[in-house]
Amino acid sequence: MKHVTALGLAALCLAPAPALAQSPANLSALRGLAPVARLLGTPEGKAALDANLTVTGAIQAGAAGQPLLLPFPAQRLLALKDCFITDGNATQLADGLGSRIGAAYQAKARYADARSFTSVTPALARLIGYTNTITKSDSNAGKYAFANGTLDGKTPVSEEAAALFGGGAVQDVFGKAYGRPAGTPGSDAFGNARPFQTLPALTAYRGQDYFGAPSHSLDWLRGPNQDLVNSPSFPSGHTTYGTTQSMILAILVPARYRQMVVRAAEYGNDRIVVGAHYAMDVIGGRATSLHALAHLLANDPAYVGQIRTNPAVLDHGSADTGKTVALADYPAAVKAARAEMDAFVAEACGADIAACAAEDTGRFRDAAANAAFVASTQTYGLPVVHPGTAGRAEDVAALAPEAGHLLTAAFPELSLAEANRILTETQGPGGGFLDDGSEFGVYSRLNLYEAAGRAASLAAARRGGGAPSR
């Protein structure tokens, strides 16, 4: 089997997409993320920015009282390991699959070193690779656009993207709000300086990296492992990656859907713990991922059929050399990956797959603790910015009808209408900095942990309590 090299995997979430102008999908994400650029224009927005820095600092220092799934010292150590991105196979996230399935997955999908990795199955590798390139492109599009209105720090964004900065919107909102405007001493050269550059105090610490080697948190902030000094903060690329790959595993192993939602939330939160991102970055990265993934599952032409360089696809003797990937029918790709994943899980678990999926001696075994942690990361307690959406449940079917595919892909017993109704009934608090009544704003308040619980119960009832949904 040919190993694919993934040069600078951690940097993959930082580099801008090579296109000279934003794609339609990129523009959709930029429009959804654009409310962040208007925060300095209102008292509510300024209050949210102040709270963003305060909350971020409290989490980073271990003073926030978050309902973490690990003691804070242990969470810090995990956050250090989570700085590395297993972009090719999602293996670092697979502990959310439970003790038995997760161990089997991680035994087969491994990183021998920072460059070389294996995959569980060919179809899963293709699915991971293509999905990453799409969601990552949307996240990357926001990095410099909201920092200084460029694609890469220098090349101006397209006219359509530039138009987003009218009406009081500004670039470098974090740098300006926190006294570290672009190019000033201690700041980012391009804008939107990160927490390790703006917090009054930063807790740096030692531990081990993903491979068990001695490491230090500053190695992943100022280099040499990853240099974020001139990498704009918003949105969080790591969170986009963590949410994307966790959701792929959730959809393919529905019995562990809720736990994978928790792992996604934890991975994003770990970016705050290490000092790399603000709470707003994490919320933005999560919404970016879910928005793009829902459109992929809906086979939206703006998201499928693109030819992408793909570091995740390995050469399994097929015509696909691993250099590029293009999925013209995304649900079909999910179906193919699911068939291979089902076979893999059956081999790992034997006859009683349900019991195998339920086996969990790790940190995701307590449903109440899982629910509390996910709820704490929904808004991070940031104040309301958009009062018009704060006090009402937004109709997901009307605003973001494709969102229901995030449930139906895992629980096909549900109709899209039923899935969207569940998402409406379980959505988190409204009025957040992205929740301006737009389609994208809906994704910023989805609570997929609660939604998946209802979806799984309904699916099981329709199966008569039979085998896990497929």
Secondary structure layout plus pairing:
Blueprint: H1 24-33, H2 43-61, H3 72-81, H4 99-108, H5 122-148, H6 159-162, H7 173-177, H8 195-198, E1 206-208, E2 214-216, H9 237-252, H10 257-274, H11 279-297, E3 308-309, E4 324-325, H12 330-349, H13 353-358, H14 367-379, H15 387-390, H16 396-399, H17 405-408, H18 416-426, H19 439-443, H20 448-462
Antiparallel strand pairs: 1-2, 3-4
Structure in a nutshell:
The protein is mainly alpha-helical. Helices cover 48% and strands 2% of the residues. It has 20 helices and four strands.
What can you tell me about this protein's structure?
This protein has helices at 24-33, 43-61, 72-81, 99-108, 122-148, 159-162, 173-177, 195-198, 237-252, 257-274, 279-297, 330-349, 353-358, 367-379, 387-390, 396-399, 405-408, 416-426, 439-443, 448-462; strands at residues 206-208, 214-216, 308-309, 324-325. It is built from 20 helices and 4 strands. Strand 1 and strand 2 form a beta hairpin. It has 470 residues and is mainly alpha-helical. Helix 3 packs across helix 10, helix 9 (237-252) crosses helix 11 and helix 10 (257-274) crosses helix 14 (367-379). It has one domain.
